[in-house]
Amino acid sequence: MIGKFLAINPIAFSIGALSVHWYGIILGTAALVGMILAISEGKRFGIIPDFFMDLVLIGVPSAIVGARIYYVAFKWEDYKDNLGEIVKVWHGGIAIYGALIGAIIAAVIYVRRKGYSFWRIADICAPGLIVGQAIGRWGNFMNQEAHGGVVAESFLRDNLHLPNWIVNQMLIEGQYYHPTFLYESLWNIVGLVLLFVLRRQKFLRAGELFFSYFIWYSIGRFFIEALRTDSLDFTGPSWIANVLKALWSPMAALGFEQGKMTYGGNIRISQLLAVLIVIAAVIWIYVRRKTGAADVYYSDPIVPSGREPKEHQEQAVIAGEVMTETHEEAVQTETIDSTKKEQKDDSNGTI
């Protein structure tokens, strides 16, 4: 059939014995784009680029470690007899929620050492996080992983109108699958636009953009996760499983079917976490506003507490020099104008 080609090779190129995988390239690109967005917004608040570069250098490794630990912990049966596979991240097998946990822990430590409020910096980084996830999902595409259940080829071509190169990559061992990576990537791109709009609203308080990111991402993840066939799952109380199933019912009404769970459980961990995160985030925003704790707005200046970081001391010095030069120029201009006026008055007196 026209348009059918071999699947994309997960290895981008090789240098001798070293193979460079698309997965790593895409994750690196995701981190770079996210950092650029944070740097751009940080400039509005007088935060220099080096701050975010250092944050990325600390946060990305922490995120990868957290993501891998999270994934391996829930799939220990697959790794306990082959521990060497644990470090082979390029083979896939990382969890977004684990990445967020690792990155947040590292960020809290770093940001506080620099004297900043974590919530203020988290707000600035929120758009970078969601665009990073939108890009990062294409790493799953290259590895042919994190997909949904079996679908007909016609669904991908005629219903979704996907290009050949995506359809062909969804052909795995003779069957086509839901491109859940694409669903989540598009959902996150829409979320990025919403965050851009939201952060310009005057009512937004510190920390609320960060939690809005979590709310948006978790809602999308809840509905998309059930389509996947590689979800981390466990057997829990039936009432929880029934609640999750009821919440997902709109997707079933649209004709979608849930994918099989990896270990035959009845609760998908990511779905449960998504619901808990949305509830916790909404409560956090409400309580902070109700108690008056949310007294700092997103648009307020960001001032480090206590001793100013070295880079901001340097900025303060530069700003002071500029202000001094401006003041001196103003004084000189005023003196010249005054002298000219006196000369004019003297001239008028002699006439």
Automatic annotation (TrEMBL):
<comment type="pathway">
    <text>Protein modification; lipoprotein biosynthesis (diacylglyceryl transfer).</text>
</comment>
<feature type="binding site">
    <location>
        <position position="137"/>
    </location>
    <ligand>
        <name>a 1,2-diacyl-sn-glycero-3-phospho-(1'-sn-glycerol)</name>
    </ligand>
</feature>
<feature type="transmembrane region" description="Helical">
    <location>
        <begin position="51"/>
        <end position="74"/>
    </location>
</feature>
<keyword id="KW-0472">Membrane</keyword>
<feature type="transmembrane region" description="Helical">
    <location>
        <begin position="269"/>
        <end position="287"/>
    </location>
</feature>
<comment type="function">
    <text>Catalyzes the transfer of the diacylglyceryl group from phosphatidylglycerol to the sulfhydryl group of the N-terminal cysteine of a prolipoprotein, the first step in the formation of mature lipoproteins.</text>
</comment>
<feature type="compositionally biased region" description="Basic and acidic residues">
    <location>
        <begin position="337"/>
        <end position="351"/>
    </location>
</feature>
<feature type="transmembrane region" description="Helical">
    <location>
        <begin position="180"/>
        <end position="198"/>
    </location>
</feature>
<dbReference type="GO" id="GO:0008961">
    <property type="term" value="F:phosphatidylglycerol-prolipoprotein diacylglyceryl transferase activity"/>
</dbReference>
<feature type="transmembrane region" description="Helical">
    <location>
        <begin position="94"/>
        <end position="111"/>
    </location>
</feature>
<keyword id="KW-0812">Transmembrane</keyword>
<keyword id="KW-1133">Transmembrane helix</keyword>
<feature type="transmembrane region" description="Helical">
    <location>
        <begin position="118"/>
        <end position="136"/>
    </location>
</feature>
<feature type="region of interest" description="Disordered">
    <location>
        <begin position="322"/>
        <end position="351"/>
    </location>
</feature>
<feature type="transmembrane region" description="Helical">
    <location>
        <begin position="210"/>
        <end position="227"/>
    </location>
</feature>
<dbReference type="Pfam" id="PF01790">
    <property type="entry name" value="LGT"/>
</dbReference>
<comment type="similarity">
    <text>Belongs to the Lgt family.</text>
</comment>
<keyword id="KW-0328">Glycosyltransferase</keyword>
<keyword id="KW-0808">Transferase</keyword>
<dbReference type="InterPro" id="IPR001640">
    <property type="entry name" value="Lgt"/>
</dbReference>
<keyword id="KW-1003">Cell membrane</keyword>
<dbReference type="GO" id="GO:0005886">
    <property type="term" value="C:plasma membrane"/>
</dbReference>
<protein>
    <recommendedName>
        <fullName>Phosphatidylglycerol--prolipoprotein diacylglyceryl transferase</fullName>
        <ecNumber>2.5.1.145</ecNumber>
    </recommendedName>
</protein>
<feature type="transmembrane region" description="Helical">
    <location>
        <begin position="20"/>
        <end position="39"/>
    </location>
</feature>
<keyword id="KW-0449">Lipoprotein</keyword>
<dbReference type="GO" id="GO:0042158">
    <property type="term" value="P:lipoprotein biosynthetic process"/>
</dbReference>
